[in-house]
Structure formats: C-alpha cells, structure tokens
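Colleagues,

For the teaching module next term, I've prepared a clean inverse folding example: a structure given as tokens, and then the sequence designed for it. I'd like students to try predicting residues themselves before seeing the answer, so please don't circulate the second half yet.
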C-alpha cells in the first residue's frame, strides 16, 4: 500500500496554490503572460448561462457565460478595496493583485472576454451538470444571477471562491468540490499516525538548529499531541 502522507502533502500544496489563481510566466519573461488574441476561441458553441471550466495544473477556474464573448467570473483582487476607478479595476488582473487580494480577502466578480478568462486553456462546458442533475437552473436565471453579483465582494480560499460563485448561479447553492477535496486531504494527513512522527522529527530538528526556546519547544510538543489526539 502506498504511503498516503507524501501524496496528501502534495495535494495540500496544490490546493493552497489553487485558489490563488497564479498564472505561469513564460521562461525568461519578467512580465505577465499576455492573453490570446480576440477570436482565439470559437464562442458559437457557448450559450448564455453556460458554466465554463478551465482546468489548470493546480486548480480549475470557473465562470458563467453571458453571451457576446463575455464571461462573469470571480477573481481575488486587491484593487476594488483601494480604488473605485472602474477603468483601472477592469484591466487584466496581475499576479501581484491576485496575491494581495487573497491576503486581504477581497475579490471582484468581473466580466471579461473568453480569451482573458481562459487565458489559453481548454474550456469545458457545463461539465458539472452531471453532479447536479435535478438542480440545474434555467440558463437565463444563471446568467442573471451572475450579472447581479458583478462588482466587489468578499473572498475566501475555502468558503467563497470562483467555484462557489458559479455553483450558486447555475445550481442555486454555493458548493466547492475543490475545497471538499482539500479538507479530505487534511483529514488523511491527520489520521495517518506517521504524520505524528514526522512532526516530532521536524520539531527536534528546529530545536537543534534554532536552540531551545519556548516557540520551538511548545510547537514540538503541542503539534504532535494535537495530531495524535485528532487521529
């Protein structure tokens, strides 16, 4: 049987990065990756109210198609909390704005072109409908819900992200399967008693490297104790 701890730790790292929505920069580039040119995607197959998914390496980004090459989607963004200038806010969100938005727990539901939304990724259409067979709202209702939420909003990595936004719009209830998977990974680590031994070894190493201090000693004692009791 495979050791679940390395696998779980890897998943934890992925999900911590997940909701940050960081875009990869091209090799040797000091700036942001430019979005594809207009017309990159064939939008004739999209209908108003469709739920669009863009799978990435570490996360899936979601949006609601509004028609006419427009997508409403939630993105963490610091700018709406410090300025009301719509022209500035509507510019493509940079990685710096994204990270600061996650830290400040602020976001905006914004309307972008399909090219800016998907950023060159493949797009799945209504892929989640199979999980909500009897809960799919009308396409127009989904689009109207998305349009009503456009603007600044609170953001949470676990409780209010882009997946919560689209599932509320299309299915009537905010749900995030990515968040559920994150919590399952955390429980897997806690239940595996080998994580207790690992935390003890890390704690002892910190004491050896940093010396005996209340901060290192207490963490060395309480973290393994918590994992042991929770497991």
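(Answer key — instructors only)
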């Amino acid at each position: 049987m495979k050791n679940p701890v390395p696998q779980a730790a890897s998943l934890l790292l992925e999900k911590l990065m997940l909701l940050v929505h960081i875009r990869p920069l091209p090799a040797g580039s000091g700036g942001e990756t430019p979005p594809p040119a207009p017309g990159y995607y064939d939008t004739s197959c999209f209908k108003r109210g469709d739920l669009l998914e863009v799978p990435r390496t570490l996360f899936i980004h979601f949006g609601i198609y509004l028609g006419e090459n427009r997508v409403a989607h939630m993105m963490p963004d610091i700018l709406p909390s410090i300025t009301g200038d719509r022209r500035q806010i509507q510019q493509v969100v940079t990685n710096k704005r994204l990270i600061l938005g996650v830290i400040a727990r602020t976001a905006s539901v914004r309307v972008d072109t399909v090219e800016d939304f998907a950023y060159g990724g493949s797009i799945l259409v209504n892929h989640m409908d199979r999980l909500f067979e009897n809960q799919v709202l009308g396409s127009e209702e989904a689009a109207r819900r998305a349009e009503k939420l456009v603007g600044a909003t609170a953001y949470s990595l676990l409780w209010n992200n882009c997946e919560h936004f689209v599932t509320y719009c299309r299915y009537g209830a905010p749900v995030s399967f990515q968040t559920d998977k994150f919590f399952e990974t955390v429980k897997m680590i806690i239940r595996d008693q080998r994580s207790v031994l690992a935390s003890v070894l890390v704690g002892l190493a910190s004491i050896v490297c940093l010396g005996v201090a209340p901060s290192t000693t207490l963490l060395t004692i309480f973290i393994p104790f918590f994992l042991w009791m929770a497991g």
